[in-house]
Amino acid sequence: MKLNIVGDITDVQAGMKLLLKDLKVTLSEEGLLVEVSSSEGELEVGLEGNRAYIRYGAKHQFFRALGLLVQNGLKSGGFHILEKQQFDAIGPMFDLSRNGVLTLNSFKFLLRKMALMGLNNVMLYMEDTYEIEGEAYFGYMRGRYSASELKEIDDYADQFGIEAFPSIQTLAHLEEFLKWEPVKAYKDTKGALLAQDDHTDKLVQKMIASVSAPFRSNKIHIGMDEAEELGRGKFLDRNGFVSRFDIMTTHLEKVLAAVRKLGLKPMMWSDMFLKLASGSGEDYYGHDTQIPEEMARRIPKDVDMVYWDYNHVEESDYETLIAKHRPLGNNLVFAGAVWVFNTFGVNYGLSLPATEAALTVCKREGIREVYATMWGDDGMESNPYIALLGLQFYAEHAYAEGSPSMETVAERVAFCTGIEADAYLQLKYLDETPGAEPNNQKQSNPSKFLLYQDVLLGLFDKQIEGLPMNAHYGQVEQAIAARRDPEAELDYLFEVPQLLCGVLKHKSEVGIALKRAYDGGDKAELKRIALEVLPLISEGVTKLRAAHRKQWLGMFKPFGWEVIDIRYGGVVSRLDTAAMRLVEYAEGRIERIEELEQERLVYSTVNRFNEKGAGWCSYYYRMASPNVFFHVINPF
Predict the structure, then answer these.
(1) 366, pLDDT greater than 90
(2) For residue 26, what are the β-bridge partners?
């Protein structure tokens, strides 16, 4: 396709050339005439006869319009699209703190996809993955971004009218920094800073100055969520008991003083205030929670409150919880999610309905700023690329007065990413398995715990007993393979899920088979599994690891891959040990296998027997073993 673009395109020219290259569109005086002009805020794009037009009110809207033009430009009879943006700011939050630190090229790739979608903000969640002068241990060996790298990301985003800004932690969630002995002066508990301390105050000032400097934006997210342990470690020893609310508000004022000094516009997670207002001090989503007038009065009003909610699928829940925030008196921002948390896949069965409900209510409630978080909890086995369908849904919602049709979303995501919506949706079946609640809305993650659980210990075997997990993963493997397109730029994303299913179609139920054969005294079956099935699983894990390594090293910085490498190595090593011991027992060289003599219990209260899904586990080390991986004498 050739285009002849005329009009004042000075501000968008650099970004336009980058996107046209991706779209394989060239500029030529012989191409379709495209007249570009400004509008009063609406986005308008169309084709009439042999001329096309783009009218846009904000820089980022031009790039969405350009994509819509190329997507629809060859339709006979022409077309006309008029859109009004429903949110002032909308975009993803990339988690760059759970080992997966995107390379600059990967980040730029995602920014180009965002530009085609029409998203205009991106939040970089960095706990300790940015540089602070004089703090060598901050982000040490963690793939931290340099100031120049952050500036390069910001410069690149700006070409598309995308506002990039940092999201950091200024109170809790700093375990990876505070674990170092040389920085113990900053430490209250294992993850929380020591509040009301001169050393901490100076550190926070350096954090804010360092991380904000590379960005054009004056926005900064200062975190301060999930600080339940606040004031219960060294602070308690020094100061005795002080209410967490008093500690929070005193510390917040110091953080805001540093923010105000630099002319920044802060936002923070709202959960701690709602938790402290609840009777239990822990319930963020409590419908009975009321913000006391005294609490509301003492909270500074020049910080936006970010209400995060990833789980609800009913509009009434969002209406209630937004109403619970109103007495705070602060501007309210919303953060939803595309569920790539703690899994190899993406839970679209929860993400899409939750997004639909949340954004519908946000429009009604006048919330003008929304974000899609993509957390990488427990090591980032997943990745933000497979969440692109979810991001497309956010984008289409942002330009629709009502709800976008899934047909529209599917057409757009196929154009913007080169991958069909149905291919993305297959990834939900990595965890939406037999035993899961409808659409896996209770958040089971068997794709992870069935890979990592030990075949002799069988920690999750009771929960999946009687479920056709092997058959399920065999079917998903075929479904993914059938939808792959070797010509698609992102086809490689499906290699890891496909190979994982290839492993799990043999491994999911093997522990149950071992226990059954052992209890039945069937040594021949035990030996067969040891010599035939376990080596087959091991070979599959080895291939999976190689594919995952190639994907990781092409997407993220190398720091953090060693964690996944070790996990794969642990699976293979334990399969080898299991095979050895099974053969020894079958041949009479040992009298028993103690692990197989143990009764199988459900892993937790989150299981199919109480309608909470096939199961959930947040931590690899708990999936792999019930024994001690590490021992912390004093967690504070």
Answers:
(1) yes
(2) 2
Report residue 522 as tokens: 């069937």
Pick from 234, 251, 269: which residue ends a domain?
A: 269
Q: Measured between alpha carbons, how far is 222 from 168 in angstroms, rounded to an integer? A: 5
Has this prediction a pTM greater than 0.90? Answer: yes
For residue 633, the model assigns a pLDDT of 57
> How much is the pLDDT for 43?
97
Is the same domain home to 128 and 78?
A: no
Element containing residue 315 per DSSP (H, E): helix 315-325
Cα(88)–Cα(379) distance, integer angstroms: 33
What token pair was written down for 324?
């619970």
Contact 458, 515 (CB under 8 A): yes
Amino acid, single-letter form, for residue 370: V
Rg (CA), the chain: 26
User: How deeply is 253 buried, as exposed, middle or buried, from its count of CB atoms within 10 A (0-12, 13-18, 19+)?
Assistant: exposed
Domain span at 46:
2-83
Q: What amino acid occupies position 505?
A: K
Q: Is the pLDDT of residue 632 over 80?
A: no
Strands (E), 192-325: 219-221, 265-269, 304-308
584: its two tokens: 């020894």
Closest CA to 488 of 633, 560, 388, 591: 388
Residue 621 to residue 628: CA distance in whole angstroms: 9
pLDDT at 16: 98
Question: Which CATH number goes with the domain that contains 26?
Answer: 3.30.160.230
Residues 196, 201, 202: CA angle, nearest 5 degrees: 150
Gap between the Cα atoms of 347 and 429, Å rounded: 8
- In the numeric block, which tokens belong to residue 280? 């239990």
Residues 128 and 250 in one domain: yes
